[in-house]
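Weekly sync notes, structure subgroup
Attendees: PM, AL, DS (notes)

Item 1: joint prediction request from the bench team. They want all two components modeled as one assembly rather than separately. Inputs as received:
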Amino acid sequence: MLMEKEHNFAVNEHGYYGEFGGAFIPEMLYPNVKQLQEQYLQIMGDPAFQLEVDQLLKDYVGRPTPLFFAERLSKRYSTNIYLKREDLCHTGAHKINNTVGQILLAQRLGKTRIIAETGAGQHGVATATVCALKGMECIVYMGEKDIERQAPNVARMKMLGATVVPALSGSKTLKDATNEAIRDWINNPADTHYIIGSVVGPHPYPDMVARFQSIISQEIKQQLLEKTGSELPTHVIACVGGGSNAAGAFYHFLDDESVKLVAVEAAGHGINSGMSAATTQLGTPGILHGSKSLLMQTADGQVIEPHSISAGLDYPGIGPLHAYLYKSGRGIFMSATDEEALHSAFDISKTEGIIPALETAHAFSVLDKMEFDETDVVVICLSGRGDKDLATYMNYL
Amino acid sequence: MNRIDQLFATKKSNILNVYCTAGYPALTSTTEVLAALQNYGADLIEIGMPYSDPLADGPVIQQSSMVALENGMTIATLFEQLKNVRTPSASSDTVEVSVPLILMGYMNPVLQYGLEKFCEDAESVGVDGIILPDLPIYEYESLYRQLFETHNLHFIFLVTPETAEDRIRKIDALSSGFIYAVSSSSTTGNSKPIEGQSAYFEKLQGMQLKNPILVGFGIKDKATFQAACAHTNGAIIGSAYINELKQNSNIDTVTKEFLKKILA
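Output from the run, pasted for the record:
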């Protein structure tokens, strides 16, 4: 879970990755954010805490998740493609790696009430799940539009005992759910911990969430070593909205320059269609949800409402680590349209017998746009399963 | 001399600061609102620069911001509107505004406008102070402090009941103009009853800070205004006034009636 040595892409003491990051928060949030900044590394570094996280990840989440050699897909692209099966985590996506860590952290901080934002509902479900496990009150903010398009996850959250509050402002999607969660935290600073679901938000959230998700690349390394004799792949491919599964899948490879880190954004109807969520292509430096990063915005600095068919990628920003990977050239940023993602979802279902989440499907769409050698080892982070997207998929059957 | 300093040099108590959203209720109503607020007794005016994602604001100011943005309000337009408020030409029907003006907003639109240009333009139209609640001390000190000072703009920080005493002292050292004391940790328009916060106000009063203190959040009528003024230099009204503007489109009448009740 933790890096033994600091890598080249670590945050500095003020929470910056290069020019991106920081903690742009109103004074009302200062005590809570300061407490986290001062204590997260210490708590995460405590062996007793690590043991508790590891046990839950093993016995409750079902880790390690398999690294599966996708034979038919590999044959098609004449290379070696491995799928990191985060879809097999309890609750159906990688999101729970972070919520398990944060709920234990919240307990250490003496918090009794948990809030979260959610887009596709996967983070909301993962948060509701760990709250049920620990007997904590759980309030999940979700855009009204997302509540409609991710109905099964809304039902799951309710069944798990969470209160789902619709975000009615702005574009009524993930951005607005995040605003509402932050406002809740401002109004309830003493008893509440905010479990952010992605590598966004004020420092230390981007770093903390990346560390909790870094179990993904930690396992990939060990599993590749067993399967191929080398712990390094040539490529790691992951979809990026805020960027938590990508951050986790990239984390332990950040300093290995030979590993190409491919982040796939949602192009929506096309990058220049006006209906897109490809932040690195369309964004400029800006501040949203407490950190400086790349942001889709007007010339006047108003945040643009993005579009993606997948609620989890429908976000106008990107985590500051990813903005830095983009700017520094360490990350390769590509994109997939709604149509390409849908096509991939059906293709992967038939080719490998795995129905991926719409978000995850974007990662597969770039295979056609890349060239691989026969000896390449390509790892795709299969971040979530597609059960929640059946209503969308059924329109295309 | 900065108009905020002039004000506090002559008036020490019961100072009334009223917030309005630029471009609300109509794009062109900004200067009319300023004139009315000045006429009916506001000692300072805080002008909100609307933003699509105002994190510290509750529903009332969120809604006014959204309307203002739909009306087409931008920082550039606001500076254009404020261009002549300090020195209206004899032929125009613009009323001269002489009370201190403070711009309040969020970092992102200001960043896109360009911090340096923002400070230059704010100074040139006669703005006296700036409130950017999401600009942290670290970035203020390391990047922007010089810029605000060069342009004779007071930078006003917030403190809350949860702000530790050493941090209040640090904020006092960095602030100029006044300190904005948030009455309880909340978004605007959603604060806990102000009457229960007198211990916090007394604490601030007892700290002998170099800056005057104005209390904001939860000030909505005469009783809350007086409760805030009992231990501090004055108070700031925001959501309650915006709510009045929402109910009635006659800006002059609404403002007159509203301020009369507060100051009666």
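Discussion: Chain A touches chain B at residues 14, 22-28, 30-31, 169-170, 175, 179, 182-183, 186-187, 189, 284-290, 295, 297, 299-303 (CB under 8 Å).
Action: AL to compare against the crosslinking data before next sync.
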